[in-house]
Design goal:
The structure is a homodimer. Chain A has about 375 residues and is of the alpha+beta class. The first copy, chain A, folds into 3 domains: about 20-60 and about 150-240, Probable tRNA modification gtpase trme, domain 1 (Gyrase A, domain 2, 2-Layer Sandwich), CATH 3.30.1360.120; about 65-145, Aminomethyltransferase beta-barrel domains (Alpha-Beta Plaits); about 290-369, Beta Barrel (Elongation Factor Tu (Ef-tu), domain 3). Chain A is built from 8 helices and 22 strands. Chain A has helices spanning about 20-25, 45-55, 75-80, 130-140, 160-170, 210-225, 235-240, 275-285, and strands spanning about 5, 30, 35-40, 55-60, 65-70, 95, 100, 105, 110-115, 120, 145, 150-155, 180-185, 190-195, 200-205, 230, 290-295, 310, 315-325, 330-340, 350-355, 355-365. In chain A, the strands form 5 sheets. In chain A, strands 13-14-15-12-4-16 form a 6-stranded mixed sheet, with helices on both faces. In chain A, strand 19 (about 315-325) and strand 20 form a beta hairpin. The interface between A and B is large, with 56 and 56 residues.
């Protein structure tokens, strides 16, 4: 597979950490929320192995925030998501599918409740800010909506806990999963959540003070040698093995939350007022006709650049493959696919054509591990 | 400047033409509306020279359409833009700044009126679909909004007229600037507009029938030798010289249309009902404090990856540079910058630091040529 350069410009925003990761050996980028997101530091297989055993520092500034504040902010945030937020607490993160009028997905952010009237929507790759602005204007809500200058550094991997303790003290280890609080670094307070886009454990620092964030970024590498700290980025292999779904890759605005297995975040039997509620009730009562599933593919190389049709053994279209990679753990290619009924159950078999060759595959439940 | 690879995935969608342009020698991509947009076929200087004299075929499928149809479609389209569309005609394209509740820009699409109740918004790089969906839901408009499968091929350059005549016959030359009509290619009707993202003249084919579009793409190269046809893409040099502004590069959601020189598309003295109208009236009466201007910079190389502060001769911040390139025509670097009052007039001088070196610059009006 030939490599193509990325043409940089202001429209594809750099992050405060871009010059650092370029010195540290980033080799590939993707674009996420109109910003550079590192995609590889050399081999993603080696990086995956390292992440599972050690600790990595990630420039994930591309996880942008949409800040919604003001008297109607709670109403607007609830209107956008099918997850009931009526009992949500300040200091907690909530994984929330955002839904449009048709019951289809708009994004799957983590929502942070900063105050009763102040929220951050930490978004996947789509312009939630314009969805929020449209809804607010249409409903004449009294809110303020903007993208604050917040650039996230993620600290991921099993040794992230000890590294973070060394910087912020013991209390950081008491942070519960998806909880957040404020921690001091050389006199500057940083919002830190126990979260991140891997299943290896870790934290995300929501940096508002860029200068302090840059200093902190460097400090992690200065003191992290004993934990074998390395620069990294969201890892394709690790995230597929862990079944972490990606908006735009595994699902998009043509899919509904039941098809994506988000059932537990769809709270239809509550008083919560949100878009697409009646549509989702109808979809639930009728049942979905396809579902995101895992697949094991009998090959050891793939470079997926778009959807790929999956055929049943008797030549019917079973669904389409949306993400895939070689997994050193399974010693074969694994992927995430939208599988149609009646094929969406574990151990169904099918086949796939890649560059003229046919490979056998087997459907499985998510997550893989 | 080191090159970095682009990491492809389904989220960064390929176009129907991607495999073709990769065989034809594309070397760099950017990402635009979550899709691959070619950014270079080797030297952009040579490509610029070729474009000015010949004809190029561009894969600009990344110019996505937002289709809005239904009884309230006209009302919704008007609500999004400060340009008065009350006298708009079927078969015409309209360049329209989209505006939010604060009077700031959301996008600057070309809007095609297909019927009284059917519109295509041919967008720059932001998710207008979610802005439209939010507004429609909030206002309970009776509309249908979706992204149709339309992939544009642009035919650009002075010889595009003769090439198009050879394919579609004489009548295509009668199409007025920003007019569109339907033309037959081997029994398939294609919507073709006299438009495109260069000032060298040309057409855009809004391909709905992908198979026919692929055939047409190949046909242009088969029969275009006499016009020296080549593959190409929107050219950084040509578009800056021509003063074609780019959303995300030259302006974004932090800027208003008066700052960007869109005054003639801001129709405040009409009955048109649109977002931000009162804000824009206030901005107009107070006058803007900064403006997009051209700059000539006394150097022959730049690789701009973000904004760069411009200083006045006595050390004040004059504004910031947002796009720039070496122009073989001017034999120096030219750029587009947001310049603050009292500096935003032609022939003001200032300076710029690039990689530790200071370069003199002079402000000028747009467009350059």
């Amino acid at each position: 597979m030939k490599n193509y350069s990325i043409a940089k410009s202001r429209r594809i925003r750099s992050t405060p950490y871009t010059s650092r990761i370029e010195k540290q050996g980033v080799t590939a980028y993707t674009v996420y929320n109109h910003m550079l997101l590192p995609a590889a530091f050399g081999s993603i297989e080696e990086s995956c192995e390292h992440l599972k055993k050690n600790v990595q520092i990630w420039d994930v500034a591309a996880e942008r925030q949409v800040q919604i504040s003001g008297p109607d902010s709670g109403k607007l945030v609830q209107l956008m998501t099918c997850r009931d937020l009526s009992k949500s607490k300040i200091g907690r993160c909530y994984y929330c599918p955002l839904i449009d009028d048709n019951g289809n997905l708009v994004n799957d952010p983590v929502i942070l409740k900063l105050a009763e009237d102040k929220w951050w929507i930490s978004i996947a790759d789509s312009d939630v800010i314009f969805f929020a602005k449209g809804l607010a204007a249409g409903n004449q809500f009294n809110v303020k909506i903007f993208e604050p200058e917040v650039d996230i550094i993620a600290i991921q991997g099993p040794k992230s806990f000890d590294l973070m303790e060394k910087v912020f003290g013991k209390t950081i280890k008491e942070l519960k999963f998806f909880g957040f609080d404020y921690f001091d670094y050389k006199g500057v307070e940083h919002l830190i959540a126990r979260s991140g886009w891997s299943k290896q454990g870790g934290f995300e620092v929501y940096v508002e003070n860029t200068e302090s964030g840059l200093d902190l970024y460097d400090y992690f590498f200065q003191i992290g040698q004993e934990f074998n700290v390395k620069p990294g980025c969201p890892n394709l292999i690790e995230r597929i093995e862990s079944g972490l779904l990606s908006y735009g890759n595994d699902f998009d605005n043509n899919d509904n939350p039941f098809e994506c297995g988000f059932d537990k975040y769809v709270n239809l039997d509550t008083d919560a007022v949100f878009l697409g509620k009646e549509k989702l009730k109808k979809i639930e009562s009728e049942g979905v006709k396809r579902k995101l599933m895992g697949v094991h593919i009998e090959t050891n190389y793939i470079s997926l650049t778009g959807s790929l049709d999956i055929m049943s053994d008797d030549g019917k279209i079973m669904g389409n493959l949306r993400s895939a990679c070689y997994s050193p753990y399974f010693k074969k290619v694994i992927g995430i696919a939208m599988i149609n009924e009646p094929f969406c159950k574990a151990s169904e078999t099918g086949k796939l054509e890649i560059e003229g060759k046919i490979f056998a595959l087997k459907v499985c439940d998510l997550p893989f591990i």
